Amino acid sequence: VTGPIWQKSDTTVDDRIMRFLAGEDVILDRQLFVYDIAASKAHVRGLARIDVLHADESEQILGELDALQDAFESGEFVLDERFEDCHSAIEFWLTETLGDIGKKVHTGRSRNDQILVATRLYLRDQLLDLVARCKDVASRALDRARAHRDEPMPGYTHMQRAVPSSLGMWFAGFAEAFIDDAMLAASTLDWISANPLGTAAGYGVNLPLDREGVTEELGFERTQLNPIYAQNSRGKFELQALDALGQALLDVRRLSWDLSLFTTHEFAFADLPERFMTGSSIMPNKRNPDVVELLRAAYAVVPGARSELESLLSLPSGYHRDLQGTKGPLLRAMRRGLDALALVGELVEQLEFDTERLREAINSEMYATDRAVELTSEGVPFREAYRRVARELDELGDRTADDSIDARTSPGACADLRLDELAQRLDSLG
Amino acid sequence: VTGPIWQKSDTTVDDRIMRFLAGEDVILDRQLFVYDIAASKAHVRGLARIDVLHADESEQILGELDALQDAFESGEFVLDERFEDCHSAIEFWLTETLGDIGKKVHTGRSRNDQILVATRLYLRDQLLDLVARCKDVASRALDRARAHRDEPMPGYTHMQRAVPSSLGMWFAGFAEAFIDDAMLAASTLDWISANPLGTAAGYGVNLPLDREGVTEELGFERTQLNPIYAQNSRGKFELQALDALGQALLDVRRLSWDLSLFTTHEFAFADLPERFMTGSSIMPNKRNPDVVELLRAAYAVVPGARSELESLLSLPSGYHRDLQGTKGPLLRAMRRGLDALALVGELVEQLEFDTERLREAINSEMYATDRAVELTSEGVPFREAYRRVARELDELGDRTADDSIDARTSPGACADLRLDELAQRLDSLG
Amino acid sequence: VTGPIWQKSDTTVDDRIMRFLAGEDVILDRQLFVYDIAASKAHVRGLARIDVLHADESEQILGELDALQDAFESGEFVLDERFEDCHSAIEFWLTETLGDIGKKVHTGRSRNDQILVATRLYLRDQLLDLVARCKDVASRALDRARAHRDEPMPGYTHMQRAVPSSLGMWFAGFAEAFIDDAMLAASTLDWISANPLGTAAGYGVNLPLDREGVTEELGFERTQLNPIYAQNSRGKFELQALDALGQALLDVRRLSWDLSLFTTHEFAFADLPERFMTGSSIMPNKRNPDVVELLRAAYAVVPGARSELESLLSLPSGYHRDLQGTKGPLLRAMRRGLDALALVGELVEQLEFDTERLREAINSEMYATDRAVELTSEGVPFREAYRRVARELDELGDRTADDSIDARTSPGACADLRLDELAQRLDSLG
Amino acid sequence: VTGPIWQKSDTTVDDRIMRFLAGEDVILDRQLFVYDIAASKAHVRGLARIDVLHADESEQILGELDALQDAFESGEFVLDERFEDCHSAIEFWLTETLGDIGKKVHTGRSRNDQILVATRLYLRDQLLDLVARCKDVASRALDRARAHRDEPMPGYTHMQRAVPSSLGMWFAGFAEAFIDDAMLAASTLDWISANPLGTAAGYGVNLPLDREGVTEELGFERTQLNPIYAQNSRGKFELQALDALGQALLDVRRLSWDLSLFTTHEFAFADLPERFMTGSSIMPNKRNPDVVELLRAAYAVVPGARSELESLLSLPSGYHRDLQGTKGPLLRAMRRGLDALALVGELVEQLEFDTERLREAINSEMYATDRAVELTSEGVPFREAYRRVARELDELGDRTADDSIDARTSPGACADLRLDELAQRLDSLG
Prior knowledge:
Chain A is mainly alpha-helical.
């Protein structure tokens, strides 16, 4: 529709360069557009409060911003290569519909703080979603820990059979992991909840903007005060949000690795729900745990996005066009990561275990540690007990897995899983 | 159009899971489709040579593969979410148009070797492009080195003025860099030029496939023989191609950093062509070197893609669905990186320097090293000469930049740039 | 002194393999040894509380642990290759000095939870240090912002002169950055403050350990309950601590980049204290800002350590020897990063600016944005005002930098830096 | 012993800053010292050829450089914190022993090209070692492939049993992998074999240095001509050497993952030699495959070192002190990676397989693909054959693994492993 905002009459622009400048920016902006509109509304109300806009001007602009959002959501308005970015699209829409009044929306702001605030609002929503999904997984894992509290399964170290464990302890382990992940996502949300709108191009503006009002209207915890810092924080806050996502995906990867092992023919401990499986194009006999593999793979988007972002940030203060490159990796990683997390709760809930096979996989040598610890209560120093048991591994045959897990009374272990305490932590996340 | 190839009648598939499985796979496959078709043709001819297909069957299939390519290129056939991936699309087209004959194309191959060979062919083209673009930049930099051989400019270490240098040496430095980059891209191309087609799902097949014939037809340097290794090399070869790209982009970043400094008001050594500049949405006075900044940013896609790929590869032997995740980062990084490189030659050619200002920026202290070395020819040990000159920095005032660079006779330096030797190296790359 | 704890009589161990297994582990353990001793004391007191150790046994062990700490700190006891790791050294010392009683210390624990708790205590101290150093930098930057509140300096975007700014705003920007960094370090400290001791090899133990007591004695915020999760969290918590460090180092890098530019001959805005400079081995005339460059470089240890750690964590549940590799990158990055931060406060305090030169660097075109915003108050729509000012850039000559920054009244900008609000945030960090 | 070379009388140096500047530099330099000495000798001979040094001067210096090397290797001369770096140590030694003549060694060179050439010589040796170790692994894997050519083992995709495979094919897969790795290491060696000595601080020197002579004496393939490029290549060449190492370690990781699975109780396909195993500190029953796990972990040093290096390289042209940070990650990664590789050959050679168990693990459904392909020779289109076999999976019971692998005649597969061709490729590496 239009050339770039900054275009002056005497400039001709080479198409290839324009395409390189644009990259996939405007397509990515589709994910940020509603946040840009929301922030624009807050900006307009703020301008009205300091009398830079008349009441009727701000009303008209707010009305058209609502109309634009409706048109975008209905598909009537398409954000595409006609526009340089979502910011230009907003100004274009307002100018088309309102003429001179529309040209006033950009008073006291820059695309530099506009993209910052849109991204910040976007990150806030993603982190809220992350908290919710982690809590969902944790909650279902807790339910299953309760249901399987007393079912033995072998415990491994170095992928070698080590000591008896329980299905309850396995599920509770993931419950606690995702509770911690939710806690981290929540505190990351607090940290990034700082409003950059009103810092303009990175040096503020000669207007007494009502920034506190805008901060409150947009629901931020605090105002990011300093304009230079606001610019310098681009990428910083994105990295921290990616870390929070990454922590959850690290646990998804552990879970997926366990399931990938447990569903081999050799382990055969667990079955996936049918719809989590696919077939092969050449081997008629195959049923493959593809979803579990793609869940395991999901973490990769985080180091990918982090490395890409980090490589962009070695710069002096102030805005640089390099920062445009932060958008793609952030949006892609967030979407893929949260899509993965959205499947985990159901998987945890529907996973089936072959409890008979789990029990059979506990062989008698695995009671050695129990026995060594018992000897200490007879006064044998642990290191002595350890050596004695190592010599007598074949004398452990009459023990049972049930006895072993019943005796595992250290807090958090099989006989004392502390599920209520975990449930309380989960609830306290609000 | 169709469900997945492996779908059996008793399977229902949950939409959300299907979307997660698909990811953006089929959209990415648009960049691989022509390679998949080319490899399919070679596969079909190979099957005909061992009499698995009759001559007329292979002719019909080859005809339809050509037709599919035409339809794809004309936009008549769209590769989209109707298909699981590009491989399924080919089989679908052949079965639709040829019935039972079409169902024969997948004999003796798997999607596992199909994606390997398509990616390998794609990488080969990207690396050829990389070689060409590096050579182009080097060639233009050599031209400019010749043109500016005797123009002084200040040389910096630690971003501090150090010794006189020349514009010719600056351009020649980038020429040699991109020659080395082209050399590396060429040897990487040799290394990855190994044909994996004919290894099926990773264990070969009970047919005496004519793999050498296919290797030759597709123009590979060697056959990747072992099917287990063929699978295990997924990601490995991609990483190496990304490295070759990365080496060139590291030099683009250096060049861009120099230009970013040189175009500041404070340095003011260089001017960019007008069309490499843009404006600001809030500041009417700005002309910004956005293209240079995005060129500097371009390298970031390489560590981003590398990190994402690497995170996927911690796996036992054999195909795993995790590997699907290698596709996106590879294709995105290659495209962005090569698009960036495509602009560099022209930039190097059109860049303008303010030679007067370059000359003025050479102050007299910068002759200190020259003087210290001269003293050594009078028998003063270098470390003594160094100390003496440090005490007499104000006695260097009558020297000129021209004298300094004329005397810089060490091979490769200002007075002996060895441009012909660089030109020979460039030519020898073929 | 001894072979490994687990060594049985029938094993011979190949030296080369042993060296590979050991790596640099025991040398790195020197940084963890005091934490291992502190945790051992808490473990011993816990065993006494549940009557696994008699009062006099625990007293003797505690006494010898204190003696070991003294001997280590005085250099009398050297932790070196004689020991497999710091855990073995403790057990060796106790057994040498106390005989059978010493052999009891390992009752109910494993090296798996021992390394977890020692690392966690170490991380806590590092994060406390990180909080303190960020607060120190922020505090000094605030002082300087107050002192230079009204001194103009040019503001840059794209490294191009953009609008007038102030030295006060520049210092305040770093103050706010390091306040946020301190806030993040503090919340990361909360998050990792979870006691893993008492989870043994990853499956708990058949003793009713008093874990809450140990948690309290060691000053942790909560108990990490689940033994499987405790193992799975190895690396996870380390990554998060590295992120907190990284956020601070990102700001150190920005600051260093600014100073690297500001100390060029071309900008010449700032001078470094003499002792932050070094010379050259060949160029007698050079004074180089090496410290600033190494501060800029310091961030690199974080992505380095993160990538190395992340690459290790693609594993199923439970301990794996791979995890030993998390130690080196963590300890190296923490030490280098905190050493860098320790220099920044002083640098911020002692940095000298050439205020005259800063003022001269503000040319008249930089008032264009001020003028465009002013026009909006006369009712000219911003986009119109922007175009008009772009045409009349040469009419801005009678404005002054002082007027411009006095008029910059948007909260956080030059005329309203909100230093008191920042000081309050800093104080509220405790 | 001495303060820094560049120290002038009026400078006082703060200890803490000096420690930060030094980092661990001089300790790391121990690995580079012999290369610095070798390059110094070539530099001295070059200076003599252009008459900057008299014959007797150069003889004396060369004699003392040999003496220094002897003293260093015998431990008589210790490179430690007394020196700023290894370059200063050389100059110190020569000045101490030869007085004024010693002060002449630094004529026409800078520490900037000195560290470049020492690192380049070091990299060359590491890459030669890498080639040798990859060839050793490949050679032993080929031997074992020959020995186990006809022994069936199950082939997996998605970690699910897929089709019959053979032990010969598994070993041959790793042979081909390490042949490719050796090939890459060799071509990387060619690429980095460029002599930077004679480029001084990055701008050459006013002496007609005999650079070709030095290049030849040091055994480089070509001279790195341009001094600016020589500086800009710092880090670039190191990254490429790390990549070559990384490719080999990726294959070590695959191999280790396979062995980690194969040595579980559940798979129980393979046994490690006793000395590749260790025990547990708490569990008397454990024998753990620690070496295999640390081999799997070894790859992590490469992305760690790469990320750290890459983060340092976003800089304008010319030397910057940031580059000092490239040394540590490079040296650590090379050492750890090559130490790991040194164990792999022996592991491959001594690994024992339970061939009975491997055979039993092939169940009848795994013949489905064979059957489907056979049907195509009866004219059934493959996709039809696939569907038919999927319905009749229980009719495959009378097939044998031996028949299946004998029929796998596609080149590279079980019945046609092409070991001679692989051996030829290995031999052709020289």
